[in-house]
4-hydroxy-3-methylbut-2-enyl diphosphate reductase (Gordonia desulfuricans), 317 residues
Amino acid sequence: MAESKRILLAEPRGYCAGVDRAVETVERALDKHGAPVYVRKEIVHNRHVVDTLAERGAIFVGETDEVPEGAIVVFSAHGVSPEVHRTAAARSLKTIDATCPLVTKVHQEAKRFARDDYDILLIGHEGHEEVEGTAGEAPEHIQLVDGPDSVDNVTVRDESKVIWLSQTTLSVDETMETVRRLREKFPELNDPPSDDICYATQNRQVAVKAMAPRCDLVIVVGSKNSSNSVRLVEVALQNGAAASYLVDYAREIDPSWLEGVSTVGITSGASVPEVLVRGVIDFLGDYGFADVETVTTAEETLTFALPRELRPARTAK
Ligand code: SF4
């Protein structure tokens, strides 16, 4: 008898509260103001989401100086530095800030510890938009630590006044290793007041850890520039999956990946709409993967209110 082929589906996966809010922000802005609505950077790091919003009339730009004076611009979920707010104001742009509240929380921490004259070691990936935004809050106090191997290069002014903060979408395990190395070097290193790696990033990694040891292959749906999606591939490989690949769409799956495979795990990054996961399940169904078992490690109920400019007006009593 042929070995049964099955799919394990990680839960939670896909959209987090911050992405949901950011995507809805652009949709509501288009409904309210009509096209075009300008968006600085990709609203979230997902090809499908960006293409779909572009079809509806969103225009994605690299910087605010590409936006016509006086027009509406939405800032992405990854956050922006104060300098971006200043240049937008100088061009009289009408801004709608879709920065995830959990990124804003890290900005507030950066401002607070900079005010108290700490050296802030920001663990994150060089060049990522979120890191650029956070570092821009206090460039003279913040230095980037891009993983455990960067620790050797870190120097501080006063070893008794050092704190680490982080990007929200990192690998929890790798970040803890970076912190361990930093603490070896600076024993008085302070921890952030609360976790900077957000609940959604952590939950998706925990679900993959639970699923990966049972999988011959883990397919992560997500875009290559999505930090939390790329981390899920790493987590799958580090926790027992024989192979793991990142795909934007089902059509990117190479059928040779499925040779000799009986269990495929599927998850998706925090910026990935569920329709793309369904596409992968359907694709695998054509190759005989009919059984789908959900591996649930947490339930998520968090939601965020839309930016003030887009909330329904209150009616007077
Ligand atoms: S991944 Fe986390 S920080 Fe990023 S938008 Fe989602 S909830 Fe916010």
Notes: The domain at 17-99 is CATH 3.40.50.11270 (Rossmann fold). Residues 16-19, 77, 100, 102-103, 168-169, 198, 200-201, 228, 270 surround iron/sulfur cluster (CB under 6 Å). The chain has three domains: 6-15+199-296, 17-99, 102-197. The two ends are 71 Å apart (CA to CA).
